[in-house]
Amino acid sequence: MNYKHRYIAGLLLLLFMAGGNVFAQKLTKQEAIRLTLENNYGILIATNNIEAANNNKAILNSGYLPSITGTASAVYNKDNIEAQFSNGETNILDGAESDRYNAALNLNYTLFDGLGRFYNYKRLKEQYNLTELQTRETIENTILQLFTVYFETARLTENDQILRETLQISRERITRANYQFEYGQNTKLEVLNAEVDVANDSINLINTEQQLINTKRDLNLLMNQDLTKNLKVDTTTNFISRLQINSFIEKSIKNNVRILRNKSNVKINDYDLKVSKSGYLPTIGLTGTYGWNKNNNNAASFLSTLTSTGLSATFNLTWNLFDGGRTITQIKNARITLENQEILQKQIEQEVKRDIANALGNYENRLKVYEIQQQNVLTNQNNFDRSKERFNLGQITSIEFRQAQINLIQAQTNKTLAKYDAKLAELQLLQLTGQLLNIEF
I need a surface site. Which of 36, 53, 322, 430 has the fewest CB within 10 A? Predict the structure, then answer.
C-alpha cells in the first residue's frame, strides 16, 4: 500500500471514529441531574425509605388510637343426664341437647403511660427527619459521583478532539514528506519518522476513544439509561465567585448534612432517655366490652333459653413500683448513649471544619494550576506555530517539530485535566458546606 492509499484509509478511519459524535445526543448538566434524580437506583431506594419513615410517624403507628377486637363462639352439647330431685324422683335424659352462643366487641385504650407514648411519637417524627437527611446525603454523593463521571467524559471528549487535530497534522507531514522524497529533497527516513508518528497518534486516539465509550457507559449507568446510548456532554465550565464561597463556608455548620444528621441522632437519643424515664410513672387504661350471649338449655335446666346483652367498662391503673432495677439500668445506659452522641457531635463539627479547610485549599491550589496550564497552552501553541513555520522552511528537523507537537499536546491535555480537577474540587467544597443541591450547574 503506497502513501496515498494509507492516507485515504486513515481519513476513512478518522471519519468513522468521528461519526459517533455526529449522532450523539446532547446531554446538558441539568438534564443529567434530572435523569439521575428520577432513575438512579440508590436514590430510588432512599426515596422509598422516606416513604416508610413517613408511614412510621403517622397517627396509625403512634399508639394514641385504641384497639378494638371482636370475639365470638358457639358451643354445642349432647349429654346423657340422670337428675335426682329432693323428693326422691329421678329423671333420666338420654341425648339431651344444649347450645350456647356469644359475641362481643372489646375496646382497650391506654389513657396514660407515663409519657412514653408521647416521646416515642416525637422520636418517630425525628426519625423521619433523619431519614430525609440520609436521603439528602445519598443524593449529594450520587450527584458528586455523577459529575465525576460527567467531567471525565468531557475531559476525554476534549482530549479526543486534540488528538484528532494532532493526527491530522501528522498525516499532513506524511504527505509533505512523500512529496519531498519524490523530488529528492529529503531521505526515506523522514517519511518513516512521519509514519511512526501517525501510528502513535492513531493508537492514542483509538485508546482515548475506547476510554470515552467506557466512561459514557458509566454515565448511562448512573442515570439508569440504555448503556449503549451515545452522549455528547457540555464541556463548558463556570466557577463560583470567591465571595459566594466564603458566604457558604460561614453557614457550613448549619448546613452540612453530616452535622445535621448527627444532631438528629442526638434528639432521638434524648427521646429514648425520656421514654425510659416513663417507666417510673403509672399506666392508666380503659377497657370496655359490649357482649351478647344466648344459652339454649336442655330439659334438665329450669330455664330453657337465656339471652343477655350488656355493656361493661373498666378503668385500671398499673404502677410498677420496682421491676428489679431494669428501668434504672435502661435510664443510666440511655443517658450514657446521649452523652456519647453529644461528644460525637463536637468531634464531627471539628472534622467538618478541617475537611472544609482542606477542600478550600485544594480548590484554590487547583484553580492556580488551571491558570498556569492555560498560560502554558498559549506558550506551547506559540512555540508550535513557530516550529511549524520553520519546519516548512526546512530550518528545523522533524524530530524538533515532533517535540514541539508533543509539548503542545501535553499542555492541552494537562489544561483540560486541571480545569475539571478544579471544578470537582469546587463541588466537593460545596458538598461540605451543604450547598451542592442549591446551585445551578
Answer: 322
Do the Cβ atoms of 116 and 278 come closer than 8 Å?
A: yes
Q: How far is 151 from 167, CA to CA, in rounded Å?
A: 24
Record: fold of 3-66+114-286+324-438: Outer membrane efflux proteins (OEP) (1.20.1600)
Q: Using the predicted structure, report yes or no on whether residue 22 has a pLDDT greater than 60.
A: no
Distance CA 234, CA 28 (A): 6
- Per DSSP, the three-state class of 72 is strand
Separation of alpha carbons 357 and 381, rounded Å: 36
What is the Cα 194 distance to its own chain's centre?
50
C-alpha span between 441 and 439 (Å, rounded):
6
Query: If you write DSSP's letter for every residue of 116-164 in order, what string do you get?
Result: HHHHHHHHHHHHHHHHHHHHHHHHHHHHHHHHHHHHHHHHHHHHHHHHH
Q: What is the tens place of the pLDDT at every residue in 126-153?
A: 999 999 999 999 999 999 999 999 999 9
C-alpha cell at 349: 463539627
Helices (H) and strands (E) in the chain — how many of each?
A: 10, 6
pTM value? 0.86
What does the mean pLDDT of the chain come to?
90
Q: Which tens digits make up the pLDDT trace of 203-218?
A: 999 999 999 999 999 9
- For residue 199 the three cell numbers come to 501510528
Residue 171 C-beta-side C-alpha neighbours within 13 Å: 19
Q: What residue spans define the domains of the chain? A: 3-66+114-286+324-438
